[in-house]
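re: ur question from earlier - yeah i can do the single chain one, its not a big deal. heres the input i used so u can compare w yours
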Amino acid sequence: MSFFSMKKMGVPGKCPAHMSAWTVAEDETLIAMYPTATFREIGLRLNRSEAATRYHARQLRHAGLLQPKHIAFTLDDDRFIRRNRHSLTAKEIALLLGRSTENIYRRAKLLGVSLAKCGDSHWSTKYPDEDVELMCALRDDGMRLRDIAEKFETSPQMVSWLCNKRLMAVDAMTVDREVAQ
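and the output i got, formated as tokens:
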């Protein structure tokens, strides 16, 4: 039992007063600009908000008037990402494949591939992998950290960190192989 009843709002088939219905000309403009422009650009051209443009494009897609903008990744794209993940950044891969950086990160995650750079591949590497290997070899041969630090003109703490914690480019490839198995 209801104590009050609400009046129905609006008139079926009529656009509310605070909105304006989409015209055929606006539909044609949206369809023409859709493949190459962003929703923001289309909205500015039509004097509509980005959200309204996005929603109307979705309605047109469901009606079969627009094709989806997103292109599925191919096997060649996946191979390219796997092959170049250690040498190229996500931004560079995105430019070469004609996709957004976010798409590359998302696809790499789905493929189970890490785009992290280690050792010489990392942009802020100060000590080359060869120097780190030599430091580790000298330490394994019994040389003191202080003596190694003097040879490489760095602190003993840095030598200890490099020998114990720093990952090299080879380590990144090894981790990927272990994850794949």
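The mean pLDDT is 84. not sure if urs matches, ping me
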